[in-house]
Amino acid sequence: MMAESLNGVQLSTKWQDASNREAAILCYMGEQVPLIYCLEAEPQQGEEEQKVEERLLCPLECFLFGEDPCVGLEKLQQHSGCSSAQQCGRVFKEGETVYSCRDCAIDPTCVLCIECFQKSVHKSHRYKMHASAGGGFCDCGDLEAWKTGPCCSQHDPGTSVNMETDECVMDPGLRERAQMLFHLLLRYTTDMLVWEETNELSEELKPKVKQDTYFCVLYNDEHHSYDHVIYTLQRAIACDQNQAQIYTALIDKEGRKAVKRGTLGSCQQAKDNIRRNSEHIIQKPLRVEILHTAVMAHQTFALRLGAWFQKIFGYSVGLREVFCQVALEPAADNNNPCLISRLMLHDAKLYKGARKVVHELIFSSLLMDTEYKRQFAMKFTEHYKQLQEDFICDDHQRNISITALSVQIFTVPTLARQLIEEGSVIKVIVDTVMDMMREHLDSNQRFHFQGHNPDKFFRVQVIFHDLRYILISKPSVWTETLREKFLEGLHVFLRFLCCMQGMEEVKRQLGQHVEVEPEWEAGFSLQMQLRYILAMFQDWCSSDERVLLLAFQECHRALMSCTNQPFRSEPVDNYMCKQILHTRLYKVSQEPVSIHLPISRLLAGLYVLLCQTGAIQYLPDFVDTVQLNFTELAEQPLRCVVLAAQVCADMWRRNGLSLVSQVYYYQDLKCRDEMFDKDIIMLQIAASKMDPNHFLMLVLLRFELFDIFNGNSSSKDQEVLKQWNRLTEEMLYLIIVIVGERYVPGISHVTKEDVTMREVIHLLCIQPMAHSSLVKSLPDNESHETWLETVVPKVAVFKKPGVSGHGLYELKKECLKEFNPFFYHYSRPQHSKAEEAQKKRRTQEGSDKALRPPVPPPFCPGFSNIVYLLCCDIFIHILRRIFQKAVEDCSSRWTEPMIQRALHLVGQALLEEKTQLESNSTEEVTFDFSLKAQKTGSEHGKSLFHFLTKIKSLPSLKAQNDMITWNLQMFEVVKCLREKSGPVTSFSLDHSKMEECVQDKEKAERKRKAEAAKAHRQKIMAQMSAMQKNFIESNKMLYDNVPESSSQSDTAASVESLDVDESRVAVGPQQGVCSTDWGPQICILCQEEQEVQAQAPAMVLTACVQRSTVLTQDRGKTLSPEGGYPLFMPPDLAVGTHTGSCGHVMHATCWQKYFEAVQNTTRNRLHADLIIDLENGEYMCPLCKSLCNTVIPLIPVEPSKLNYESAELVGQHLTLERWVQIMSSRIRGLRGTWETDKNCKEAAEEAMVLFDESQADFRSILSFGVQEPPKFSRSITEMLGVCSTTVHRVGLQTAPNDLCPYVPVMSWNTCAYTIQAIESMLQEEGKALFGSLQNRQLSGLKALVQFSAFQRLKSRKAVIQKHFADMLAVLVPVPTVVNAPSILEVDFFHLLVGLILSIPALYQEEAVDLQPSAVSTAFNHLYLLHLVTMGHMLQVLLASHDCAVIRGPEEGDEAHAAAEIFSIMSQHTDGLRAGVSGFSVESVKRGVLPFLRCAALFFNCLTGVPPPEELSGTAESPESQLPLLCSYLSLPSNLFQLFQEHRDVGITLIKRWCGNSAISKALKGESQIIRYPRKRNRLIDLPEDYSVLLNQASHFKCPNSSDDERKHPTLCLQCGVTLCAQSPCCQQQLNGEEVGACTAHAAICGAGVGMFLRVRECEIILMASKTRGSPHPAPYLDDYGETDPQLGRGNPLHLCPERYRKLLHMWQQHCVLEEIARSLELLNVMFPFEWQML
Ligand SMILES: [Zn+2]
Ligand SMILES: [Zn+2]
Ligand SMILES: [Zn+2]
Ligand SMILES: [Zn+2]
Ligand SMILES: [Zn+2]
Ligand SMILES: [Zn+2]
Ligand SMILES: [Zn+2]
Predict the structure, then answer these.
(1) CA of 1614 to the centre of ligand 6 (A)
(2) I need a labelling partner for 1270 at 20 to 30 A (CA). Which of 186, 309, 1314, 1593 fits?
(3) pLDDT digits (tens, 9 = 90+) for 1118-1127
(4) Rg (CA), the chain
(5) For the chain, percent helix, then strand, then coil, each to nearest 5?
(6) Cα of 380 to ligand 2 centre, how many Å?
(7) CA of 1606 to the centre of ligand 7 (A)
(8) Under a CB-based contact definition with an 8 Å cutoff, are residues 790 and 779 in contact?
């Protein structure tokens, strides 16, 4: 215990002086470590960390530096002038975004972390981003990883001293101590990590005080399920479920966890229990160990040392180098491997947490330095086999296996070369694979995978990645050793391929269907693994002539040694057309055949390379040409091609799907380049070497068509005939391909670019395509590079995407001539699609429909003989027989596709002849197809040419007519070329032309008629679809911002139809004619028309009520759960209630029936509750599928015209003051009918003082005119109730209660809020206030206003009267109300709507239902509007913080009036508005404008009085429309004049308003003041470049946890906050339910509506309520106009403003809910996502 009193420096001196320094340090550790760690069952991390720093790490550092580490460190850095490494080396976590550069990275495994990328030159290159699988590290600073820009600005060595100098400068003492200390500690760490249960602690480490405490440690495995472990723990150690879950999660994450601490006995008991409970017949028990506490403590410290080492490396490169030396140093006793090898070899036995530490230690030391990386790589290669074997048996993921390190070393070009030369790494890898696959070998030494273990097989295949890494960059310089070692590698690789050559043979099943589908996936996944490797081997070979020749030799030898698939018969002679072929017989349909021929194919590939490089001339020196029998070499590939053809011809039906799949993959993009394509090449090689007649005879024999074409075989079996026909088609197709497919470098003079270009052209001939689909359809190389970008601009035009959809490439016209309908990479469906598309195009262009063969590039000399296939006797014979059958028209013997192919071949032959004649003299040209075609058989009128002219008139070949004509013309052209004369039209052609002419005329006539009929039909269809479209267009929610010209004109028309002289004033005694007629409406359900009448059954409008924060001025404001008093909307409009409608009208009864039916059917549908919330009354609009949750009844209103004379009369008596008095006394009088309030005395007094209400009596209100209220049918009243209950329930988020006094209030509120939302949206989009709404929007709004107005009929009058009194009290003193809110606490538009809609209730008399007459209403509206406007103006003034003093130009009445008000106001708010010395009239006007616009919309909907026409146009500035608005609203255009008009009242009121104590509080800054005009909300600004967002996300720290688990940063687009989604750390309680961070946030931020961007996934999430959400593509596009969900392609992404605006509109127009419902309906989810956990 002495040691504790010593400080770090003292301790280190003591160690330094000790006789055995190592022992001294170890003893100290042995004493201290158990005192720090594992003192309790659960680790106390903070405390432990502090102790370990203080008592262990600090003394160790003191020892290292020999003094105070701070001093030492400074010295060290002064000396070397270099702080740390120039490589970034950041280790990636799983899911972290990493970047690669397609321009500069040596290979795709070279990646940068986001920090380095942002500071690198690659930011402006063609970069790629993807999510890391974890485990790799950043290659910034690695000179070998990048062609240019290897370092980011941060890691650029140019700024500091070279690393090498570092070593020599290090103090020798320091070096010596470092060596000793690192060795000691690394050995300690190694010993502790590779610990085995039975080990004993060394003498030094043995605890001095014997303690009998142990841990029972449970290890992770991948066999037991999570639940099983939880179950086991609960049983075995008696913990509750929660604890068991925590343990299990930790075991999964860290790899192990101590689950019990106690005596040896109790731990043993726990161990037995766990093992027993986890054991199962098929499952081994869980791994459990009992470890002494001291051992556990040392293991914990050993892990801690990992991080400490990394910190030390940061001090100096020299220290890091010392560590590397120590790690690689051979062990003293030579029996043990070096320390790092021990750790490596033990990797598979280590638990996850320990592995991570070891790997990071390797990353930060050995891999950071070229020389040590090399030494480490040698060690790694040395142990390679062992490591892989361990990995195969290990059940952990590869990313936490040491084997995953291969990517870090094998991909470094110089290192790879060294490893090949010095470590024979190719051989090592192939040998390793071979060893592991040996168990799959059958007696013939070929692989057979039936019954293999897929998991293990998958792990074996991963080894092939290493071979790819090694071969990834081919050498520029070859040394002799490299040649030797490479060929040695190739040799073993060929041995491996030998086991594949001919593996998994199939034999045609006859009679009976195959019983067990044979295994085939394993063979093909192996083939797919090998694909890149084979390509890379060939690539390497091509870079050195000698290697290429030797490789060919080796490969040929290997092929010769394969004895698979021997012939079973002796050769025989086969005769046809006087030709003899001496060959052995073999029938694919009867004997075994294999689809796997890797060696044949590799040989074909190498042969082409020999031709390409010219090395072929030396071939005889390497391979005996006698042995090179190409007939033999082509045999196997030919069988394979025939197999595919026979499968096509349905001959192998009984062999099941397995074979069909194999044939599919054989020709599919993923395999074809090293399978089908190479077979074709081998056949081309054979065709170039063999006599053409013999070649074709061989083909006929193998296709089993020889006898048929010899006329020796016949059958009447339709099935057999069909097979022969299909086989003939396939055979002809093969000849087309062999002769025509020349786009392989070496076969013709084409470049790789030409090859890609041809692929692209043919893909685009099918249809225009998006970039990503093109990429997917093109073969890639090992770097996943397709060279599409360089090629595509040459052949295609880019068509930009619209607001939805994606960008497309369209083929350039001049490329169409390259189109080959028999392109060999077309799949069957692609072939017919392309053919159809091209024929259609030609018809549209008015050309003929002949799809002629394109002119191919000439063959290289080595292959030029192939063309003679097209003029040999057998060829002519084959074609003649085919055409003859067509001419004789024996229908079962020929098919149209057969003729089509034959015609194509004729075309190819004629093109070839033409080309030859054009470039050579006629005498030199030996290609004589046209001559033979005309001569052979002509004596009987049976020449090919004759047949051709005859089939032209066959009606069954009408579709081929154009092609036949073209062929005949070609004959003519060739003939002319032969005769060296210009093309003269011969008689025969003329004749046929005339014939054609007549035919054409008839055809034209027929066509004209057909077209006329078609046009007529189309017109009708178009009309119908236009109607439908219009209907849908005008009825679905509007997202697009195009001006609605049609609806505008609609509105304009209705305006014009009115008398122009009519008053365009909506309020007051000058009010125009009220007209709210609905006109007849058609029910969308029963299609019947009905007038909207008071006594008729109700018509209803679909509607959706939702809470909204779209207008909020205080986002994120939480409302108290009680919801406060909803009568007054606070001016921040924090949460409003929006009611939208798609404008579709139904009978109430029809709707009810529909609604019930929907409820019943949907209830039974799977997951329907995710789409519509039945409990909340949701349904989809039957017509447009918009989401709705209620209906609004259409309220009929009789048109009425004011009697202007009586209005004028009333006006003379009824001043504002008088009106207030009347209201006041009415309210006082009514008070008796509600409750009495003691506190009212004060209020009454105030009212008395300000407005002497005794002037009026209780009933004077009635004297200005009353009338009977309308009577509505029962169904209308009922619907009023339905709607108001929904609004109340949704708006207040409360249980339905139609007796709640706030039911009417919520109706007024939603009316006001919806108008405000619409006004804001119109303003935002710069649209006119009137006339720009679509009809359906307008009718929705009108219905909503009318409904709100008449909702009062459903409520108790007293309730409404009280609401009115309370609201009025904000403006004028009301005798019954105390504590009315101040004018800064209410939204005046909500107030206006409430007052206007509730005032009729005051007219209610006990015995009779009454409502104000038109005249009374006019004055009520006028005075209420005046009062509210005055209040609002003052509100705007009080809130203005604009310091401008009234300036010159504002002189005049307006300014004068304004100044006066300002001075009165200032008097009453003296000293509180410091710094505000005045205001500008304009700014007040701007502030009041939105209110006036809303009021205009409101009164328009309420009264139907048309607005001044100018308001239907867009104004230059919204302010310029102010006078028009004022005139419509009967306000003075100089608003300040209001106060003068009602002078006494005005001043009184200003005093009253300013006097409210809440105002002085607000002005003192104690509460928030809203400024006017209110700010308009938008979604947050997004950066243009998506990587900026990724960068921000990478800095994201979860607020609630500090673990290094992968997080999902998710951005709220409403407020910009970043949340930690989908993670248990940030779950919250919401209404007693556990929900994810996003759901919880959306509840507050968007009142349930959420719009989030999941940054890593590049995906928008729309959310509504807890359970509903839907993904939506993010508004980011790559350069090809495509979105990239999940960043699957990883191209650079840029913001698309149009798409973002579309999202904004969706949000502003409250369509999020609807969008979700729509997309869910579309998806029809099977596996619902738990949105609430987001
Ligand atoms: Zn980096
Ligand atoms: Zn960097
Ligand atoms: Zn770059
Ligand atoms: Zn109906
Ligand atoms: Zn609808
Ligand atoms: Zn938010
Ligand atoms: Zn979190």
Answers:
(1) 5
(2) 1314
(3) 665 455 567 8
(4) 44
(5) 55, 10, 35
(6) 27
(7) 10
(8) no
